[in-house]
Amino acid sequence: MTMFYSIRHLTRFRYKTPVSESLMELRMHPRTEGGQRCLTFQLFVEPRTRVYEYRDYLGNSVHHFDVPGHHRELKIVAEALVESEPMAELPNGLEPSAWDDLDAQAAAGDYREMLMPSQFASPSEALFSLIEPLGIRRRDDPLRFLRELNSAIYDWFEYVPKATRVDSPIDHAIEARKGVCQDFAHIMTALARHVRIPCRYVSGYVYPRSEYHDRSPEGATHAWVEALLPGLGWVGFDPTNNLIAAERHIRTAIGRDYADVPPTKGIFKGDSLSQLTVSVRVAPSDAPPPLEEVPAPPEDWQAAIAAADEADRVLQQQQQQQQ
Predict the structure, then answer these.
(1) Domain 3-84+261-322 falls in which CATH fold?
(2) Closest to 35 (Cα-Cα) out of 82, 67, 76
(3) pLDDT tens, 253-270?
(4) Would you state the CATH architecture of domain 98-260?
(5) What residues in the chain have per-residue pLDDT under 70?
C-alpha cells in the first residue's frame, strides 16, 4: 500500500555570544526517485534570509544561505510530504554467477567512487579485525552475503546513543563494539567495498514502529547503506535495525559517506561556542494535499522551539533508561 509521510526537521544553533555571519548548506530535501516521491517541501530560516538551491553531482538537492547580520540563534525548519510505494519483495538470494555479473556491471558503469575508500569508510587495522569473525569474503552470492553482513553488524554491535561523535572514525565504534546508525552504515560500507561490492551511504529518516523493535530512536535523522546488485539495482540495507530498507525509509541524500551528505554544514564569523539542537518528527499522513495547497511558515517560532526542547528532554530520559 502506498504511504504518505509528513516530515518536520527542526534545527537550532545557539551561540554563547553574538556571531556576525553564518554560511550554511543543507541537505534535507527528500529525493524523488524509484518508489519515493517528494510532493511538497518548504524551508524556513530565522533570521530571515534568501535561500538558494542547486543539485550536487549525485543528484542531491542542496539549499544554501548566508545570514550576514549579528545573531545569537539560527533556526531552520524543513517540512516535507513524501509518497512512498511498497518495494518489490527481494529474493532470498541470487545465482552464484551473480558475483561475475556484479564485476561486469561495476566495470561497465561509473561506480569507482562507491568502490574506493572514503573519509569515514576506510580500511584500518580495526576494520580488518572484523573480517574473520564476520566472515567477510566472497561466498554464496552478493545478496545472501549482504543479508548476512547486515545481521552480523546488528548482532556484533550495541546501539548506544552518543557513544561516538559525528566526526569519529569507525575504529572507535569497532573497538568499543557500540555506536550509532552512522557508525554501522560506515562499517558496512567499508566491508562491502572490501569484497568489491559498490556501496553508498544514505542519509534520511525512518518512520519508527515499535512492533519492529527498531533500535534507532524517534526524533532523529537516520543512516543506512545501498549496495549495487545485478538485476536489482541499488538495494538498501539498514544494519542498525537489521532491515532491508523499504517504504518506511525516506531518503534525503546519497554519498560516499557522511562527509558528502550532512544535513547541515556551515561556518560562522565570531569567537563563540555553539550548541546544536535537532528535533525530527516523521508521521504517516492519510493523503497528499491538493496541488494548490502550500504549507505556511510556522507562525509561532517559540512554540516550535519549545516542542523541540520537549522532544529532546523525552529522548534524553529514554537514553538514560536504556543505559
Answers:
(1) Immunoglobulin-like (2.60.40)
(2) 82
(3) 999 999 999 999 999 998
(4) Roll (3.10)
(5) 287-323
